[in-house]
Amino acid sequence: MRQALPLALAALLLGGCASHKPEDFNGTWINQDAIKAAVKGNSLRQALNQHGPVFEWKLDVANHQASFSNGFEAADGQLSAVEKQLQATFLGGQTEQLELDGDELLTSDQSGSKQAFVRVKNPVAGNAPLGSSFEKALYQAYLGGEWKILEGQGQGAKVRFGDTGSVTGLPGPDRFALCLAGDCATMGGSNDSLWLERNQRGAPFIIKRDGDKLEIFQAVNRAQSDEMPQLAAGTRQWVLEKD
Fold this sequence. Notes:
The chain is of the alpha+beta class and 243 residues long. Helices cover 20% and strands 42% of the residues.
């Protein structure tokens, strides 16, 4: 019975589009449009909101499995053949239509919202959380390269943000994470935020990136004690410039 669906998919997809095989859907696919918008614009939050909500897909046709990540949580579903496409069905009845257009994976949800994804040539290790390939590509594009501290503690030092979340050159922290979605995005409002830590102890910071300039501010909570934190930019800690 487990072989029935792959055979049905093969007949369906090869009949509808001779250039694609069912296994062409396999692999990890990331939202490159969101990454390009983040690098090009001044607001990471705006870029992710406009080109989200899904940032990564992982598809396995033979095992009928489909998973996606929105940068905060992941969902696992089942693949099936519907007309000339694949359909991913998730808990609660949510569905996504999947099709290939050249080298891109195109998705469409029940509201008609469409997204495009590109296959990752070298995905992260299999035991890494879903979404890690998108995160790695974003870190490379958005914070990759060498930065110099123009203002703040450690002035003149060279800083490098690694694509797996390491950071060197900033006094104190050795790990970082960009806020992509979820509670940290809600608390930051329209601000972009960055988590910095050392030895699993850290704090959020507000960031403002303009081309080759990156400002890092202390995050100040403006909410009342019984309210969800609302983070705003406080004292500027560092100004970095990409070499």
